[in-house]
Structures are given as structure tokens and as C-alpha cells.
Amino acid sequence: MIEFDVEKIHIPLKQHVGGPCQAIVNVGDHVKRGQLVAVPAGLGANIHASLSGVVEEITEMDIVVKLDKEQTDDYVRLEKTDDYLQKIKDAGIVGVGGAGFPTGIKFSTQIPGGYLIANAAECEPILGHNVKFMEEQPEVLVRGMKYIMELTGAKEGYIAIKTKYRKALLALGKACKDEPNISIKILPNMYPAGDERVIVRETLGVILQPGQLPLEANAIISNVETIKHVVNAIEEDKPLIDKDLTVGGRVQNPSIFLDVPIGLPISVFIERAGGYINPHGEIVRGGPFTGRPAKEDEPINKTTGGLLVAMPYPQEKEKVGILICECGAQEERLRQIADGMGAEVVSVQMCKRMKPDKNGRLRCELPGICPGQAEKVLKMKKDGAKAVIAGTCQD
Ligand code: SF4
């Protein structure tokens, strides 16, 4: 287990799509690593203690556990059952790539004759934990895909990956050489290659409209780390208590950590990565395109993939325009960045490919096939902008 020097952890009660879970333990209870501590009140997924200790406090947002001095990698096993879907639900697995949708619900959908696609795009720059997992344990991904294909009735399994991950590609090629129904599909080296509609377009040749799900193409897409947790649940009776993580940016030793306990504070991982390079700016939880600012004492959760330390904001006290892309930073985040720079936002534009879907949400018509943005930049200039802060992924 990773070394850490903290006395307590905060286990968040909301680590998924849906409302917070309800705690089923009480203050003063001793909980063991792997023990079920909270259950969904509606849409959601079970939550287990990731380390052992005594429950010190329960709030609306989290369970605070004062840690035992001795911790081990061992954990309380899930109940035995041959029902794999039940095992996935019991384990509290959600889409750990960021979506947080309960995996037990996703894989209860039947797609006879359809496609299971493992999202191996490792889409956000700097992040590398999915690639490391595939390099080191490709056979785990293949086994997981076979379980999920059995559950959903999918006839073909595709691993969608970029050619730049050469070592992982070679490892995966070996791992699926005797699997007639599992093969590798190449994604373009661009952001947002991991967008579900891009993956469907590049692997199946089907163009999904904004708001349409992969199911319209008889496909289910799952992030590779999520599939790893499915294997852990089915083969090892292990609940989702550990997480893979990339720590990068302005730290001394950018690092990838596999299987670290959920609930540990961000500061532990900055320290394990050698500490900050000074001067440094904010910590970003997630990737450079879609990440959010975070604080050192916040816990990592089921959907935390990256902890990136930024450079200090340049102080450009210009009038700026912000340019929004559906797959990149949104208006709120771009305004935060402008604020950090001390810049005044005088114009807000969005990529012309963003159109409202049937629910009125603005979606990109053709993710990754990006137009020039000259027209938008000229509009900003007319509005008085002297510089542009762009959340777009191309151009
Ligand atoms: S087309 Fe526009 S909205 Fe879509 S991914 Fe490209 S820049 Fe973003």
C-alpha cells in the first residue's frame, strides 16, 4: 500500500451520478477496509470504507474515519454470488473515467449482436494511468471485456486506442491474439478522441447526433479502468475502494499510482510525487481540458483520474474574449481562469458547431472535426478583446 501520513480520511457520500448515499454506519463504529458503509438512496452506487478505522463524524457530504495505526491491503470480501451483474452492483462500481454512472445499470442493458467498446483513448493530455494499466495488465482488460460481453450479449469487443500508445498497443495485441471476438480499433491522435460519439464514429462508422447515446449504434462504451474494477469484483470479490491516478504538472516527480485508497487527501499524492515545483498555481482535479480547481485537503474519489499542478496564472490584465467548446472548458471555468489572470471578460463566444440538443443543452455536432474560429475571434475583437482564452480543442 502507498505510504501516507494522515490520521483521518473523508469518504465522500456522492461519488457518482445521482444523489448522496445514505450512511449505514454510526459514529463510534469500527469499520474495516472493504466494509459497506453507505448505500444509494436513489440512483447511485454502494460506498465502502477504503481504509480501516473508527467513524468519527458523519455529515451530509462524507463519512470521516479516524484511521487505525496499522493498515493492510486486505479487505472485506463481497458476498459470494455467481450473478456477475449483482457483484458489480454490490461492488459500487461506477464509470471511473469521470462520468460516475453506475456500472451495474449500464451493463444490465442487452445489446444482442452489438458491440462492447473499451475506451482506451486516455483522452486528456498528461494523464497516463490507463496506458500504464494496459501496458502492465492487458490480459485483465481482455478478461473483463469477456465478462461484460457475456452479460450484455455483445458479439464483438473493440479496444479503442491511439497509435501513440505503442507499448500498450503491442501488449494488447498479444493479450487478444487468441480472442476471435476482441480486436483493436485505432483512434486518431486528437482531443476529444475519447468522446463517446467520436469513438462510435471512428470504430463503427456511425455518426450519432448530439444527445444520442452509443446504444443507438447497438454499442456500450466503458472506460478501461472501470473494466478493471469489474474484474476485481468478479474474480477477487473486491469492492471499488482503490483508484488509479496520474499526478503531473509542477511536481518534482510526475507519477502514476495504481490502486490507491479512495478518501486519502490530495496532499498525500502531491507529497508522494516529490512535492511542488515552486512557484506553482492551482491544483486541477481531472485533465487539463475539463478539470476543476481543487484543494490539498480534498479527498480523491471514484472518478478522480488526475491531479495536475498548474503554473501560476500569468498576470495579463487585458480585456479578453473566451471561446467555448463542448468538449473543453466551459464558460464558468474560462471565467475562473480570466479572474485568476486579473483579466476582464468582454466577449463570450462558442464554437459554431455547438447546437442545442432536444433538451436544449448545447452539444457539439461533430466532436473533433473542428472548424476554424476566425469568425469568432473577429467578433471578440469587435467587442474590444485584446486576447483570447480558448476552451476549444483544435485550432
Ligand atoms: S467542433 Fe467545436 S465544439 Fe466540437 S470539439 Fe471541435 S472545437 Fe469543440
From TrEMBL:
Residues 7-64 form the RnfC Barrel sandwich hybrid domain. Residues 88-231 form the NADH-ubiquinone oxidoreductase 51kDa subunit FMN-binding domain. GO terms for cellular component: membrane. Pfam families: Complex1_51K, RnfC_N. GO terms for molecular function: 4 iron, 4 sulfur cluster binding; electron transfer activity; metal ion binding. Keywords: 4Fe-4S, Electron transport, Iron, Iron-sulfur, Metal-binding, Repeat, Transport. SUPFAM superfamilies: Nqo1 FMN-binding domain-like, Nqo1 middle domain-like. InterPro entries: Ion_transpt_RnfC/RsxC (IPR010208), Nuo51_FMN-bd (IPR011538), Nuo51_FMN-bd_sf (IPR037225), PR_assoc_PrdC (IPR031001), RnfC_N (IPR026902). PANTHER family: ION-TRANSLOCATING OXIDOREDUCTASE COMPLEX SUBUNIT C. This is Proline reductase-associated electron transfer protein PrdC. It comes from Gemella morbillorum. The lineage of its organism: Bacteria, Bacillati, Bacillota, Bacilli, Bacillales. The gene is prdC.
